Amino acid sequence: MSKWTRIASGCCLAAALHLSGCEAGGGSGGGKASTFANPILNNGADPWVVRHDGYYYYTHTVGNAIQVWKSRSLTDMAGAETATVWQPPAEGPNSSEIWAPELHWIDGKWYIYYAADDGRNENHRMFVLESATGDALGEYVDRGQIKDPSDKWAIDGTVLRKPDGSMYFVWSGWEGDENGSQRLYIAPMSNPYTISGKRVEISRPELSWETVGEPTVNEGPEVLVSEKKINIVYSASGSWTDDYALGLLSADPDSDLLNPSSWTKRPEPVFAKTDRVFGPGHASFVKSPDGKEDWIVYHAAVASGAGWHRNIRAQPFRWNEDGTPDFGEPVPTGAFLPLPSGEPKRVRLEAEDAKLEGMQIEERDDASGGRTVSGWTGSPSGVEWEIEAKSDGLYHLALRYLNEGTVSQQLTATVGGKLKIGVPLDNGTGGEWSNEFIPVPLKQGRNAVRLSGGDKGLSLDSIDVLQPEGNLQKDR
């Protein structure tokens, strides 16, 4: 990779955020960008997203509550409106370890399915909330446990609806009362909060790629329906390993889904680690804003060996002729992807076009504008942008950075010369680019935002300005 370096003396270009400008969002002082880079959230696991009435509704494991995000843009989730819609009781069967919530719109109401226990993992079960209003970020009524007659350990529940309207509950559970392996089960439902029959096992970890780590795991079943197939995409192998991957079960739409022989398991994983992406799993699926593209949203380890230190990523996928999904390979965080079709372009400001103090500019092939900024020399060094906000509000800056040092770093963002915000930058990205989402309150007009305090091994590429919902631009 060729690169050259120069020291920036005094001011380089002051990067003002304008709502018109270069289509590529390159280095002439800010402009519209039609690309994004993963992750879309830099912390999180078990992502679930659904699109309804022009909005994306998103949730993931928080652990001690259930939180829902709402956004018109899939890739701008870090700047979305959010609300904690439910908090667990102080004690009881659903008071601890709130895992993998899912939000479903069924027959005019929102339902949230989640796993929880009483502080003992062997008591994990599935529970359901029902919306009291039509607002996904509003109040919910606790419908209690959703269970089959066996009432065994259960997590990662989801709802499958056939074209004829019949409903089934699909989840990961234990065969008995001890954790020998996690298997996938299905059972009929009589309504969104009631299982009406016995569970049937449809998958267990048995293939070599499903059995890395102990106990062995099949979990995170998610439904993906096409005209030709009912697909269940599931996660296999230990979620704490680099080998966590997605598998596929498929059945014909008119088949008996409670008959295990109706399901065919793909012998190889359909989405697995590469030499740059590790532990991709627990996915959900959604359309682009204009409905023309299909997208997979999933979590992956931030680096090899990172275990449960994960972030959230998104990329498009295609379909095979037989009605099964073709996910391809997980795209590394160093790669730029086109925005989902119909999503508004982003405002991007390049680091090399900012006001630089004691910094270096380097050419890099993997940078959005072909150049990055590095060479931190302590507190005197820094990068400053001028951001012109359309109105007062809390904005989020998606800072694309590369930390090649051995420890995490802490920058300070100074807004308007007064307000200071700590900006932690992870060192666990294994030499990959990543994003840090910085919440900054901006006033209408021009705002100076300065980053300072970096150290060796830290490079900045650009910032994307994720605008508050009311400020989203209509042009494409």
Provide structural commentary.
The protein is mostly beta strands and 476 residues long. The protein folds into two domains: 5-34 and 345-471, Galactose-binding domain-like (Jelly Rolls), CATH 2.60.120.260; 36-338, 5 Propeller (Tachylectin-2, Chain A). It has no helices and 36 strands. Strands 12, 13, 14, 15, 16, 17, 18, 19 and 20 form a nine-stranded mixed β-sheet that branches. Strands 2-26-36-31-34 form a five-stranded antiparallel β-sheet, with no helix packed on it. It has a five-stranded antiparallel β-sheet with strand order 27-30-35-32-33, with no helix packed on it. A hairpin with a 2-residue loop joins strand 8 (96-106) and strand 9 (109-117).
What descriptive keywords fit this protein?
mainly beta, disordered N terminus, single chain, globular, disordered C terminus, 36 strands, Jelly Rolls
Tell me briefly what this model is:
With 476 residues, this protein is mainly beta. The chain has no helices and 36 strands.
Topology, element by element:
Blueprint (H helix, E strand, L loop, with lengths): L4 E3 L23 E3 L1 E3 L10 E5 L2 E5 L6 E6 L9 E6 L9 E11 L2 E9 L7 E7 L8 E6 L8 E8 L5 E7 L7 E11 L2 E2 L4 E4 L12 E10 L4 E7 L8 E7 L12 E2 L12 E10 L6 E8 L8 E10 L5 E2 L9 E3 L7 E5 L4 E3 L2 E4 L7 E4 L7 E8 L3 E11 L5 E7 L3 E7 L8 E9 L2 E8 L5 E9 L10
Parallel strand pairs: 14-17
Antiparallel strand pairs: 1-28, 2-26, 3-25, 4-5, 5-6, 6-7, 8-9, 9-10, 10-11, 12-13, 13-14, 14-15, 14-16, 17-18, 18-19, 19-20, 21-22, 22-23, 23-24, 26-36, 27-30, 28-29, 30-35, 31-34, 31-36, 32-33, 32-35
